[in-house]
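SUBJECT: A protein chain and its fold
Encoding: whole-number codes for local backbone shapes
RECORD BEGINS BELOW THIS LINE
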Amino acid sequence: MKPFQNGQFTDRERMMGKLAREIGRGHDPIYHGTRAPLEVLRSGKLKPDGSSKVSLSRSPEVAAHFALLLGDGIVRWSPAVLILNRSSLVQTYRLEPWRYEDDWHDEQEEVIWDRTVSFRRHLLGVVTGADVTKVLGNSKHSELLGWRRPQSWTYHREELKAGSKLVRGGRARVRNLIIRERKQRSIESARLLAAQTAAPLKARPARGHVALCALQILK
């Protein structure tokens, strides 16, 4: 099964991605989603998976998606996204673009083959599930473990709708901000134009005053 469809993400994936993107702003960031952040941060290493690669993504939402995948209910897990400095990583490790198949959705993935990655000096920051919970409230992820497949799919569709709503809300706020700024600039431009028009009128003497001054000179 493909990890996500049509580039859609849930509200929690989008929020985790947004927080990670803010940390990476101003750098050359690349992201890694993990479900065992305490163990990973304690060791300071990313170990290759069963196919001998460490997977990273240029998309924080994709990293968040894999961090938030459901577990089996046996091993306790905690989602987190590591934000790494790609510019410094490539000085030590070879990053190769990677895609499973042509018909899979682009995960903007880059991989490091056959290497354990020591990431501490490349780490820009971490976003955890707790950070997302502070913004969106508690998740129903743990409840899904006892649900039948139709119920879990229904909940997943609801999360996708919530994610789309989050995006639409953000776009609406941006549009409103642009409209307000345009109105403000229009008002300021009108005031400036009025001031520039009024200034020459004030500086220009009245015709009667000019005639009176001329008469006084002739006398």
In short: The helical segments are 11-24, 37-43, 60-67, 86-89, 129-136, 141-144, 149-203, 207-218. Strands lie at 29-34, 45-46, 53-57, 80-85, 96-98, 109-113, 117-118, 123-128. Confidence is low (pLDDT under 50) at residues 143-149. The two ends are 104 Å apart (CA to CA).
